Structure formats: C-alpha cells, structure tokens
Amino acid sequence: MIEFDTVGLRYGHGPEILRDLSFKIEPGSFHFLTGPSGSGKTSLLKLLLLSLKPSRGRVKMFGQDVTDLDQDSLLRMRRHIGIVFQEFRLLDHLTTYENVALPLRVLGRPESAYRANVTELLEWVGLGERMDALPALLSGGEKQRAAIARAVIGRPDILLADEPTGNVDPELSLRLVTLFAELNKMGTTIILATHELPLLDNFKYPRMVLRDGGLSFHG
Amino acid sequence: MAEFRLLRRSRATAIVPERSVAGRTLVLLVAIMTFLFGVTLGGVVLVQKSAIAWSSDVGREVTIQIRPMEGEVMESNLRTAVALALATPGVTAARALSLEESQGLLEPWLGSGVDFSAIAIPRLVVVEIDDPSEADIEKLERDLSAVAGATLDTHAAWRQQLNLMAGTIVVSGLLVLALIVVATVLAIIFATRGTMASNREIVDVLHFIGASNSFIAGEFQGRFLAIGFRGGMVGGIAAVLFFSAVGAAAGGVVPDEASAQLGFLFGRFSLGLDGILGIAAVVPVIAAVTAITSRLTVRRFLTQTS
Ligand SMILES: Nc1ncnc2c1ncn2[C@@H]1O[C@H](COP(=O)(O)OP(=O)(O)OP(=O)(O)O)[C@@H](O)[C@H]1O
Ligand SMILES: [Mg+2]
C-alpha cells in the first residue's frame, strides 16, 4: 500500500529532517507514529499525503511511483487518502455539516446523495446538535471531531491523522482512537501521529518512532 | 428537528466566500470599463453614421458656377447650363439662382450697402440629383466645357476631407476600445490573483481533500462571471442612458434652428436601435472576458502553487 525507498526530506537548503526512510506499510494495518516534538511526524505525513515531494528516494503508493506523478493524477490519488490536520484546517465560513460534506461535494455529487451519510456520521461523533454551527463557535474537541469526520466521510483507503487527540480530555481521546480502530476493522489503513504515549498503551498496534531523522518500528 | 434542519439546508454556502472576492470594487471597475466601451462604441457609430448621411446629403447636390467672361451673355449661358444639367441622366432638378439670390449670398462677405450693378459676379446653377451613384456627373462635366466660364463643383474635396476625418475618429475609437479591453483584462488578472492569494487556505484545503483544479477554478469562475455580468449591466445601461440624456439635452438646450443644424450634423445624437443593440452586446462580451480571464488566471495559479 505504501512503500518508501531511502527517502530523504529537507526544507529548502536546511538540514535533512528525514533520512534514509525505507519501509512498507501493508493494507489494513494500523500504526502509531510517535517521536519528540519537531522530529518530523507532520513532515512524514505530508509526504504520505503527497503534499511534499521527497528530496531524494522513491515513494510508492497504491502500487504506483508518485515521485513524478502529474498534478491531476496526484489530486485523484488524494481522494483515497483521508487527513486529519494537527490544526484542523476547517473552512471558517462553512458550517460543521458543510465542512464534513466537502470531500463529497468536490466530487460533484448532489447533496441529496450524501446528506443522510453526513448527518449519520455527525451524530456518531457526537456533533448532531452542532451541524449548523460555524467552526469558530466549536470547542477544540468539537473541531477535532469535525476534522476527523471530514477525513473519513469519503471512506478513504488510507487515513492519516496528525495529533487527533491533542485537544481533548483522556476519556474522549480513548473514544476517538477507538473510533479509528473501528474504521481499521472495516479495512482502512491508518497512521496516527501522536506524542501521548500513555494513550498508546491501551492499544496493541505497532509503533513507528521518529528520532534524529531516522525511523524505527516497534511491536 | 432533524427534518427541519434538512429542509433548511437547501442552499449550500459558496465555497469561495462572497466577501473574500474584491466584489464591489471589481463590479464598479467592470461597470466603468463597460461604460467607457459603450460610450466609445456609440461615439464611433454616431460619427460613422453621420459621416455617411452627411456625405450622401452633400452628394445629392452639385453646383455649376459660371464666371462672367468678356463677350459672353450670362443669361443665355445660364439657360444652356440648366438645359445641359436637365439632360443629364439622374438629375431631377436644375435651377439658376437669380441675380438677387446670388447677391444675397455675397452679402455676408461684402456688406449690404454695396452696389452690385457695377461689378459682374459669378452665378450659380443648383443641380439636384436623385441617386448620386446613378447620376452621370462626368457627362455633365464634359458637356459643360462647351459653356465658357462654367465649372462644376461636386464638393468632392469636401467629402474626401469629411471621410478622412470620420475615418480617423473611427480608427482612434477602435484603438481606444482595444485599450479598454486590455486594461480590463489586466485589472481582472490583478483582482483574481489577489482573491486567490487571500483564499489560499481554502485552495490548499480543497487540494488536500482531492478537489480537481477544474472544480476549484469553477468555484472561482462562477464568482467572476457574476461580477462581470453585474458590472457589465450597470455600465451598459449607464452608457445607453448617457446617449439618451445627451440627445435630450441637445434637443432642449439648443435653439430650434441650431438644433436642426446639429441634427443635420449628428443625426440628432440618435444612436438608433442598432447602436443600442451594439452597446447591449458589449455586456455579455465584457462578462465573458471577465470569466475567461479569471479562469485562465486561476488555472495558472493552481498549477503554480501545488
Ligand atoms: N515548512 C517548513 N519549512 C522549514 N522547516 C520546517 C517546515 N515545516 C517543518 N519544518 C521543520 O522540520 C522539523 C520537523 O517538523 P514537523 O512539523 O514535521 O515536526 P513534528 O514531529 O510534527 O512536531 P510536533 O510534534 O511539534 O508537531 C522541525 O524542525 C521544523 O522546524
Ligand atoms: Mg506536527
């Protein structure tokens, strides 16, 4: 599903943030991605989202080399990838409902085709009563859940989540990761970046640990 | 409750927020450009039409001038000239101006107290032509060589000058039209780039969730098409009103006789239906220019920034 071959990444002429990453991620797997702040978790997720190109090495996704992919194919490939950003990136002028429905709307589907799905998902993440609220009026945890809902509404094959539990209490964190576990059971490949190590102990998923530009697998 | 919400959500919020587009400023700009375009176009049409009308009016009349010559009898020469003129194909009327009329023509130059009996003055025959293209003016000119002192004035030099002037105005007008279009395109490129930059976050998020460039371009283009259309309508209507107002003012302010002359000169400032239709056609053209320009600009922006 995902294959890295001696991938390196640097920003501009800066030092290499990621060095010689070579690994494979199987479809249907669940990985935690951990490492100290500034170790490059977000950068690695951006490589996986195809929003950054590696400075060297090769990245293969869905069996296809993405290094020289043209923009249109790249955008099409993104439809199979869901992303939860560390800073949510909800659109301020759209309601919670519209934000969550956006990935389906940009595919040109009529609203009647997805309205029920979106409503159901919002109920499921506990935002049923906040559907018409603008993001500015949502609490941190509510925004987090809206961002997660937007990432999964299109039933992506790969779900990337950057600190999806950064803004919520431990109880909700546990519920959210359980939600990801449910999605994983239905076949979604998941990579979840976090530095909340205590939370990880509740789950037996393998960990990818970033340190000093290198990546190691545990468990 | 849920049903109520579903009903209420019948119209989706635009993905590109209305306020983020330099909307009103751009509508005003497009309106001004359309107005200038319409007024210039109307002016060109007016000049062109007047020149054609004037030219053909002038062409419908030629004058035979007979200079007094030693040993010639003016009255008989006049009669010959009139007869020759009437014998020319296409001529409908020919009339010699009487001595008094001829003196009357000279009065403005010589004053009214002059005794004309002492000086011999040139005399005129006014020849009216039905259709200048069918009249055989050359035959008349040849025939007139038999009459001593007779010359034919077809106002050709006049008309040539008139056509040259009208042509110059029309060419300048077209140049101005082209410049207006270029300025509009540049302003729209500028505004579109500004809008894209201020909506960068939206563009990025749309890209991250897999929106195609044509989808994003469509969202922006829809906005700009609406702006172009609204601005175009305002400017076009203003231009038509402008011409009506000028026409009405020319009719009201200028005294009757002068107004008749002005009317002769400028066709009463009347654009006519075709002129108004021409200005109306400017509106969709400007709207299309706006939409196409912004689409291309958005496309370029999108391919450059991802
Ligand atoms: N756009 C950028 N330009 C230059 N340097 C950057 C850029 N983004 C990140 N970096 C640098 O790359 C390194 C890794 O950043 P990254 O955001 O990937 O870390 P992280 O593991 O996600 O950190 P955190 O846990 O705090 O979110 C940091 O040193 C950061 O300063
Ligand atoms: Mg990060």
Automatic annotation (TrEMBL), chain A:
Domain of life the protein comes from: Bacteria
Gene Ontology cellular-component annotations: plasma membrane
Primary localisation category: membrane
Functional summary from the UniProt entry: Part of the ABC transporter FtsEX involved in cellular division. Important for assembly or stability of the septal ring.
Family: Belongs to the ABC transporter superfamily.
NCBIfam families in UniProt: FtsE (TIGR02673)
Assembly and oligomerization: Homodimer. Forms a membrane-associated complex with FtsX.
Protein name per UniProt: Cell division ATP-binding protein FtsE
Organism: Devosia enhydra
TrEMBL record, chain B:
InterPro entries: FtsX
GO cellular component: cell division site; membrane
Listed transmembrane segments: 21-47, 164-191, 233-255, 275-298
Keyword tags: Cell cycle, Cell division, Membrane, Transmembrane, Transmembrane helix
Superkingdom of this protein's organism: Bacteria
Example GO biological process: cell division
Protein name: Cell division transport system permease protein
The organism of origin for this protein: Devosia enhydra
